[in-house]
Amino acid sequence: MAKQQEHLAGEPPALREPPAPESYERYVGGTPERERVIFEKLARDLMRVQLKIKERGRAPGIDRAFHAKAILGVENATLRFHTALPEDLRTGFAQPGAEYPVIVRLSNASGTRQPDLAPDLRGAALRVQVGPDETHDLLMTNHPVSHARNAREFVVFAQVMAGASTNVRKAVALYARLPWALGWSTAARMRRNVLAGSRREVRSLALETYWSRGAILWGAAGPVRYRLRPASGAPAAPPPPSGDDDYLSHELEARLARQDVVFDLCVQRFEDVRLTPVENGAADWPDEDVPVVPVATLTIPRQNLDTAEARATAARIDHLAFDPWNTTGEFRPLGNLNRARKAAYEAGSAHRRGLRFLTPPPERNLVVGALLRAGFGVLSRFVPWHRLPTWLGLLNVATIRQVLRRDNLIDTDAEQGPPAAHPVPPPIDEHVRVRRTYDGTFNDLSAPTMGALGSPFGRNLAPVHRPDLFDEPNPVVVSRELLHRETFIPARSLNVLAAAWIQFQVHDWVDHKRCPPGTKNVEVPLPHGMTWVNSSGGAPERVMRFAENEDLRPAGGAGSPILSANAASHWWDGSEVYGGDESVAKSLREPGGGASLRLEDGHLAPGPDGIPITGFRENWWLGLSVMHTLFAREHNAVCRALRDEYPGMDEESVYHTARLVVSALIAKIHTVEWTPAILATELIDIGLTANWQGPPKNWLTHLGLWLADTHALTGIPRTLPDHHGAPYSLTEDFVTVYRMHPLIPDDYEIADHRSGRPLESLGFNDVRGAATEPLMRRAGLANSLYSFGIAHPGAITLRNFPRALQAFERDGEIIDLSVVDLVRTRRRAVPRYNDFRAGLHKPRLRRFEDLTSDPDALARLKDVYRSVDDIDTMVGLFAENPPENFGFGDTAFRIFILMASRRLQSDRFLTVDFRPEIYTPLGMDWIDRNGMTSVTLRHCPELASLLPRTASAFAPWRPAMPEANTGVMHD
Question: Which residue ranges does the record annotate as region Disordered (predicted)?
Answer without folding.
Answer: 1-29
